[in-house]
Structures are given as structure tokens and as C-alpha cells.
Amino acid sequence: MGTNLPTPTDESEIRYDGKPTQGSRITIALKSSDDPTASYRWIQTEGPRVDIGDSNKPRITLTIPRGAERLGFVLLLRDRQGERRVRVTVPIGAEVVTDTRSPRADAGDDQIGLVGRTLSLNGSRSSVPANKPGSYRWIQVSGPKIAQPAQDKQFFSFIPLSPGVYRFILVVSENDMISEPDEVVVTVGELPSSSDISLRPPERSVGSDPTIGGTAGPAGKALAERVAVVFDQVADRADVYTSFEHITSEMTRGLDAIIPRDSPSRLIWSEGIFLPLSRRIEADLLAVGLDLRMPYSQQQTLTPAQKEAIRRFFRAYAQEFRSVAHPR
Predict the structure, then answer these.
(1) Is residue 44 classed exposed, middle or buried when 0-12, 13-18 and 19+ CB atoms within 10 A define those classes?
(2) Is the pTM of this model over 0.70?
(3) Which CATH number among 3.30.450.20, 3.40.50.150, 2.60.40.10, 1.10.10.10 corresponds to the domain 7-91?
(4) CA distance 105 to 179
(5) Does residue 158 register a pLDDT over 90?
(6) Under 8 Å CB-to-CB from 168, ≥6 apart: which residues?
């Protein structure tokens, strides 16, 4: 007897973040992954075995092994359109060797922000020859006007005055050598006036806020459970993290994969849920000597006491989100 296989799907539905070169870290994702009822399963079929983390997520992040020439995966997908399979082939380029004699600019990851809220750009991943002190210059190349621009070496902050797409480049120089410019894109929106979201003070719990469960009913509760899983994963790995920047990177990738991609929904979750949550994180970690209001604190090495505080904090928030997903 034959076996019923899911319908093949064009690989054009897949997008990549990062350059697939040896030693680089890339993310492979389904372009359209906003169906909360969808299920996913990634299976590696070609190349040296790589760690893809949770194979049941809409996206996977992996490090391409040195010496690898090709990686292959199959994504088994079940959503409103039925069962499908996507075959993904990753052609791998040779490892890019950076000329350590020249400065290199890295403007950081693209961001999403809100009108009237301070945004910070981070160029700390840039490098100069032999770690010599270099000069950094941030330049806005497109987008609406900004207010209160301020630069402190590799860091740059500003307040967006209007919704829109803001583009900045970072250039690093050392003596007579100038890097290639690196660009970062900041997408800025504003909260819809009809949403009528009331920000809760930091001391209130996630579970007491009706915004989570009230915005989408059953769908909102399902999303709250998935957020709880992300926070549980942070708590589980508390001992592994070396800095809060490491935590922020992993947490952002996890939340980005599950929060609806339409701008109004993302802004509601960002402004109504995650902004107050961030304030609580700041208050909790300030008590154990980590001041997240300072730019350099993101790279500060975490102490055992801070790691334990992070474990307790994120475990508690996972429980609060889960209480919204499964009210008694």
C-alpha cells in the first residue's frame, strides 16, 4: 500500500536571515507563519548534523559547520491549507575571512519601536584592528525627522517623531582606515487610539491584566501559553547565559516567532504587555546590581546571584502568563 505524503510546497515560501557561509549563524523560517493553529516539524536530511533547537517551531536557528558544503531540511507543515512539506536546501559559501587590519562596522539588529519612545542603536559588535580605539559615526540616511539624537561612541539614541521606516548607517574609522558602512532599519509605529490600552504599573502581575486574554479570546490564551514557554526556556538556561544581551537575543528570537506579525497586534503586545514587563525586569535586576538602564550593562558579565535572580524572575512570569492561558 502507498503512503499519503503531504503536498510538496515551493521553497520560495522559505526565507533566510543571515548569510549561509561556513561558521555563520542563520535562521530559516516560513515567510507566512501567523496561523496560531499551525504545527511544524523540521527534519535534517543532508549535510553534517547541526543543532536546530526546537524542531517544532516555525523557524530554526543554526550555526553552519566549518567545512560543510550543503545542508538540507524538510519542513512538515500542517495549517489551515492542510498538510504540506517544504524541502529546503542551503547552499553554503566559503568561510568569510575578515581582514583584521581594517575596521568593520556592525550596526546591530533591525528594530521595532513606537513614536515618542527613546530607541537605542548598538554598534558594539563592530571591530577595529587589534582592538585599538576607533571612531564611530552614526548617520540617518532616510526616514522622518528625529528628536534628541545622542551618540556615545558605538551607541546612538533618538526619539522618533512620526511613524515610518528609519534607516541609519554606522561607519567606523581608525587612523586613515574607514570601514564599509553597515545599515540598520528601525520600523516605528504608533498605538491605535481605539485600542484604549491602559499601562499597568510594574508591581502588578501579568495574570491580573485583562489585555492578554481579552484581545483575542481563545487565540490570546493560546498565545499566552506560547509566551510562557519562551520564558520557561530562559529560566531553564539561566546558568548558560554570560550576559543579559545573550538573554535578550534568545528571548527576542523566541517571541518574534510567535507574536502576530501585523503591526497593530505587535504594538499592542509591545506597549501593553512587554513594556511593563521590561520595567519589572529592570527593577528586579537592579536589586542584584545589574542596571539595565545603562547601555553597557547589556554586555556586563552576569554573576551567580544575578543568574539565580533571572531564573526566579522568568519562572514567575512564565507561571503568570500560563495562568492567563489556563484560568481556573
Answers:
(1) middle
(2) no
(3) 2.60.40.10
(4) 6
(5) yes
(6) 107, 121, 138, 139, 140, 141, 156, 183, 184, 186
